[in-house]
Amino acid sequence: MMEIKGLKKSFAGKLAISDLSLFIEDNEYLTLLGPSGSGKSTLLRLIAGLEQPDGGTIYLDGETLDNRPAHQRSLGFVQQKYALFPHMTVFENVAFGLKYRQDNPLEDSGEIHKNVRNMLDLVGLSDLENRRVGQLSGGQKQRVSLARTLVCQPKICLLDEPLGALDANLRERMAIELRRIREALQVTFLHVTGNETEALAMGDRVVVLNKGQICQIDKPSKVFATPSSTEVARFVNAYNLFPGEGQESRFSYYHHELPYAGDASRACYYGIRYDQMKISADKAGAACLTAKFITSEFEGARIKYFFERPDTGVFEAEMHLGEGDPMILVQGEEYRVSWSPEDALLFDISGSIMNDSNRTEALQ
């Protein structure tokens, strides 16, 4: 296991990582989610030993990694752009680390062939071992990069946006493969991504990072259903957030009184998930907004509908096609968009989710 305590890092006086502490379990798939500039890649480079921290300590299996060079940390690093040797074959790329690592390099060619071929079998490249890197697709290159890292049996595998350079179909297939490979090897993965869908789908736990600090660590279902702050709700990209003022069991938002199933008196933000909003639904006791329809987006299994907000900007409602036929809406026409007050989340003036024990237990 790995423990990070009070890690700090600045570049030219600008804080990149701020007093960050994190515990990473053995045999865990941990995804790290955050916007560009949040410190995700910096954190990975600090762990790998490619950058030196200004403060704090990183422990691996109870031993500090302070002042230990990158090649002696028993960690693997898979980069977004693969970093493969173009003049070598697939087999030679994967074998490189085994032959030339500083600690315990393998010299027995039979042992090298066995280890490399076992790893190529695992990542599904056993029939491509003699190909050059230039003859491979993006997904195949990513697998070679992963195989080259994992063949050296790292204690933790660090992945810096490993799917970012792939197209949508390849990204989905590689996501499945990454989980399968990790489970087969029982190796801890720390996977950095700016894609919320990827982070939620792949991680046993999700770490949400912003401005060099951890905003929330939890199971994907908890991060999605109960984001700890308005920041996390925005990163999850599934919530409409309306500013206003709470008044006991109601929330005032731009001349609208939105009911809430609890005490809303300290609330400054009202959140509701896209998929919990229903268009033209007349239901007694429902919260609702009447808004002009702007446009819709077809995304395969779901459709997103965009409406003008009463203040500025837009809000959206999402319909999954399994719930019924797509709705045909007229641009510029007003529609009633409603939802259950029990589904709403409230956030206080600092942007933190409000503590309502009864509601939290119900959501969990």
Concise description?
This protein has 9 helices and 21 strands. By secondary structure, the chain is of the alpha+beta class. Strands 6-7-8-3-9-10 form a 6-stranded mixed β-sheet, with helices on both faces.
Describe what this molecule looks like in 3D:
The chain is of the alpha+beta class. The chain has 2 domains: 2-224, P-loop containing nucleotide triphosphate hydrolases (Rossmann fold, 3-Layer(aba) Sandwich), CATH 3.40.50; 241-363, RNA polymerase II/Efflux pump adaptor protein, barrel-sandwich hybrid domain (OB fold (Dihydrolipoamide Acetyltransferase, E2P)). It is 25% helix and 33% strand. It has helices at 40-48, 90-100, 109-122, 138-150, 168-185, 196-202, 220-225, 230-236, 357-363; strands spanning 2-11, 14-24, 29-33, 55-60, 63-64, 75-78, 156-160, 188-193, 205-210, 213-218, 239-243, 245-247, 250-253, 256-259, 269-273, 278-279, 287-298, 302-308, 314-320, 334-339, 345-347.
